[in-house]
Design a protein that fits this description.
Layout (H helix, E strand, L loop, with lengths): L10 H26 L5 E5 L8 E5 L1 H13 L3 E6 L4 E4 L1 H7 L8 H4 L2 E3 L7 E2 L2 H5 L3 E10 L5 E12 L5 E10 L1 H29 L2 H12 L5 H32 L8 E4 H18 L3 E5 L6 E4 L1 H17 L6 E9 L2 E8 L33 H11 L3 E5 L7 E8 L23 E5 L3 H13 L3 E5 L5 H8 L3 E5 L7 H8 L9 E6 L4 H10 L3 E4 L4 H13 L1
Parallel strand pairs: 11-13, 17-18, 17-19, 19-20, 20-21
Antiparallel strand pairs: 1-2, 3-4, 3-9, 5-6, 5-7, 7-8, 8-9, 10-12, 13-14, 14-16, 15-16
Helix pairs in contact: 7-8, 8-11, 9-10, 10-11
This protein binds adenosine-5'-diphosphate (ADP).
């Protein structure tokens, strides 16, 4: 039957309309893809239903503004290159790096990129290599700068394809990681120095152990002659001193790096300070047969200084001069005054210091590696301490050396004291003391420390009683009524401060001298001890004469 309805289209007609629609849809999809791909700046639209058949031009302004503002604001260097490698778009960071307009230039003319390498072989990163990959993620490259400097970047790249899947553009992003690289290198160097330091420390601490062990075996053998026994004692004393110095230096350097050093400044004469320092280094100077020449100004030179710390400065520099000079060398100390400043120069004619090491010589853990001189020991922290201590005295230190084998010169400059009268140092502690026998209670959870103090007290004529913790302290103290109690602070259970406060509540113990003994020696630790009721505060390890001096006060009462 024939179709008579004019609205009813034939099958052929419908098929044609459908094909037409399909084609339009494809064109529309292509347009959208092209817009998204950034290939279209504007759209020209013709409306067939409009009787005037007017053309409407639509610019794709919003996309453009967005892209432009991203490129201006982004901190990374971003470029969009065509398939030949010509830069079509670039972020502001690119112009800053290139110092010129990069648009229209070839990528490789703007960016001279290399693969990072440890040797000096430069393997370039070309545009062709980058374009040959679909997607590159966080690839590290080095950008050669205009001068000899180079910058490190992380490179990301992505190929943009056309509708027919042809690579048309390459978007490359470069993120500057130069600062991170620098910090990484600094951390790596610090880590290397720390490892080297730990190895040196282990070595230095192990060194005195063998002679100590041997000397100990010698004195315990009955057949050892008194002469050998005496020499063994001397060896033990020296090795112990060496270990103590290492530990003291370590503690000092840790205090210095945490800004915890407090100076006890007084008006002192330079002569007193130098004399103290020389006394410390004399054994080494004698052992190595050096000649020591000291030339101080004729007039009295006064400094506002901490006696212990400034003596430590000169002793350290003199000790190095003696260590790093072959036997029979010459060490000179010359002091001059000019413009209210004192300049002390310590020169030696020893092994000298290489130019490359000089600028780092005051850094922590730095040791020039002259393997022979390694045998003298040390941790590479002495000069760091020296520099910090000089600066705490408002002074400066400088080093000079003409190179290996040419000797070294350390120049220390310090301001003179405003006031002119130096404190007279009290004479050194007398060698022989007359003692009254005292009852002393020693409380320390370190049994070896408590026992040895007890023996020493016994040897010098006192009556020690030992407690290894504080639980029975009050009970014992009330029963014994000791003349003095040497009380450790860090005890298990109640600490030394609390025990001291408790002891002070008993009138029966009012005359007992309470001495705190602790490894913490800062001003605030001392004040805390005095606040708790202690009469004195001794820093461990203390020397017998220090304790004797305190006990003598009781004997004199
Ligand atoms: P240590 O002596 O413990 O190694 P220091 O910090 O005192 O550490 O010295 C650092 C380095 O400086 C030494 O290892 C040594 O290489 C060098 N040095 C210091 N003083 C002298 C000197 N007078 N002559 C030659 N080298 C020296």
């Amino acid at each position: 039957m024939k179709n008579t309805n004019p609205d009813m289209r034939s099958y052929e007609q419908l098929a044609k309309e459908n094909a037409d629609l399909q084609q339009r849809l494809e064109v529309a999809e292509e347009c959208i893809r092209a817009i998204r791909g950034g290939e279209v700046d504007a759209l020209v639209v013709q409306d067939e239903r409009d009787p005037a058949n007017k053309l409407t031009v639509m610019r794709i302004v919003a996309e453009e503004i967005l892209a432009q503002s991203i490129l201006e604001q982004v901190a990374d260097a971003v470029v969009v290159c065509n398939s030949e490698g010509i830069i079509e778009r670039a972020s502001k960071a690119v112009s800053n790096l290139y110092h010129a307009v990069p648009l229209g230039k070839h990528f490789e003319d703007v960016f001279s990129l290399f693969v990072p390498s440890t040797n000096n072989v430069r393997q370039p990163v070309t545009f062709a290599v980058l374009a040959s990959q679909e997607n590159i993620r966080n690839y590290e490259v080095v950008l050669a700068g205009t001068h000899s400097e180079s910058f490190h970047f992380l490179l990301n790249a992505r190929v943009l394809r056309s509708v027919d899947d042809q690579p048309v553009k390459l978007v490359i992003t470069l993120t500057d990681i130069s600062e991170n690289k620098k910090s990484e290198a600094i951390l790596r160097e610090a880590d290397r120095r720390k490892d080297e330091f730990l190895a040196t420390l282990a070595h230095e601490l192990r060194n005195p152990i063998a002679p100590l062990q041997n000397a100990l075996s010698l004195i315990t053998l009955p057949q050892t002659s008194p002469a050998i026994r005496e020499r063994a004692h001397e060896i033990m004393r020296r090795q112990l001193l060496q270990m103590k110095r290492l530990v003291d230096d370590l503690l000092d350097v840790s205090r210095i790096t945490r800004n915890r050093i407090e100076l006890d400044k007084n008006i002192l004469s330079l002569a007193q300070i130098i004399e103290n320092a020389v006394e410390t280094v004399t054994p080494l100077i004698k052992e190595r047969s050096h000649k020591l020449l000291i030339n101080l100004p004729a007039e009295t030179v006064n400094l506002e200084a901490d006696m212990v710390r400034l003596s430590q400065v000169f002793a350290n520099v003199l000790n190095n001069a003696a260590k790093y000079t072959s036997p029979g060398g010459e060490i000179r100390v010359d002091a001059v005054i000019a413009e209210n400043m004192l300049t002390v120069t310590i020169r030696d004619n020893g092994i000298g210091i290489e130019g490359a090491t000089l600028p780092r010589i005051f850094d922590l853990f730095v040791q020039a590696d002259y393997s022979l001189e390694r045998s003298f020991g040390g941790l590479g922290i002495g000069l760091t301490l020296v520099k910090n201590l000089v600066e705490l005295h408002n002074g400066t230190i400088e080093v000079k050396s003409a190179g290996l084998g040419e000797g070294s010169e350390f120049i220390i400059r310090l301001p003179l004291a405003e006031s002119s009268s130096a404190l007279q140092e009290s004479p050194k502690t007398p060698q022989e003391r007359t003692t009254t026998s005292l009852k002393i209670l020693v409380v320390d959870d370190n049994a070896a420390s408590a026992d040895t103090i007890g023996w020493l007290l016994e040897v010098i004529g006192h009556k020690p009683h030992i407690l290894y913790d504080g639980s029975k302290l009050v009970e014992w103290a009330l029963e014994l009524r000791p003349d003095a109690i040497l009380l450790d602070i860090g005890l298990p259970g109640k600490n030394g401060y609390d025990l001291c406060k408790e002891l002070r509540t008993y009138p029966q113990l009012a005359k007992t001298l309470l001495i705190a003994q602790t490894g913490w020696g800062q001003e605030k630790d001392k004040s805390r001890a005095l606040e708790a009721g202690f009469d004195h505060h001794l820093i461990k390890p203390f020397q017998l004469p220090q304790l004797q001096a305190l006990l003598e006060k009781i004997s004199q009462i």
